[in-house]
Design brief:
With 214 residues, this protein is α+β, with helices and mostly antiparallel strands. Helix content is 34%, strand content 36%. Strand 6 and strand 7 (164-171) form a beta hairpin. Helix 1 (17-32) packs antiparallel against helix 3 and helix 4 (132-144) packs antiparallel against helix 6. The two termini are 22 Å apart.
């Protein structure tokens, strides 16, 4: 049974960025410390780089071992009055809150021993009509062609969209992040990257700092 990931994105109102970040970290920490959570892994990030005019987002990723476990978890939250109040209190400080449920095609994999993930680069691909499965295959192929031992991106299939794919890769420094982009754009990878471009209608890329992991 495939693992799934819930991606919750909050766009704070002006002047509320760090308040939203702090409250969301506290919220997820409380869930993690409850001692009876089906969340396998999770993290909270804040945007540190994205295209203009996009704003700063506070994003939470929660991984569940299966859809039934997420189903039970969500049902429990909807019956938890304290959680609902905390959720609404944070949402009142945001322009919007969005939630996406994704199937994990490939998991996020770390780097060599001692690797300390500090940044997460998120890519969202909108596949051309009818081309999502083919684009997933190409992204998996590109992922496996990376230098052995280097961090590998996850590949996620959105359940709320016919054509969207999400992918994220972790880094321990801005230098490593820049070097990865140079590698992607190198002549050796130009052919593979060209196949991604040919199958895609739109691509967006954001850089986030990891503030909390569980």
């Amino acid at each position: 049974m495939p693992e799934c990931m819930v991606i919750m994105t909050r766009r704070p109102l002006e002047g509320q960025v760090f308040s939203v970040l702090e409250e969301q970290v506290q919220n997820i920490t409380a869930i993690a410390q409850s001692g009876n959570t089906p969340i396998a892994r999770g993290l909270v990030t804040i945007t540190v780089g994205n295209p203009v005019p996009e704003g700063i987002d506070v994003t939470t990723n929660l991984i569940f071992r299966s859809y039934p476990e997420y189903d039970d978890f969500q049902a429990g939250l909807m019956d938890n009055e304290a959680y609902i109040k905390r959720f609404d209190a944070i949402a009142s400080k945001c322009q919007f809150v969005s939630v996406d449920l994704c199937e994990i095609i490939r998991p996020l994999e770390g780097g060599p021993e001692g690797f300390n993930a500090k940044y997460l680069v998120r890519n969202v691909f909108t596949a051309k009509p009818g081309k999502r499965s083919e684009l997933i295959d190409v992204l998996v192929e590109q992922r496996e062609s990376l230098t052995p031992g280097s961090p590998k991106a996850n590949i996620l299939k959105s359940l709320s969209s016919w054509n969207q794919i999400r992918s994220a890769r972790s880094f321990d420094s801005y230098q490593a992040l820049a070097e990865s982009l140079t590698q992607i754009e190198s002549p050796a990878n130009r052919s593979g990257w060209g196949r991604v471009v040919d199958l895609t209608d739109q691509m967006t890329r954001t850089i986030s700092k990891i503030q909390y992991t569980m």
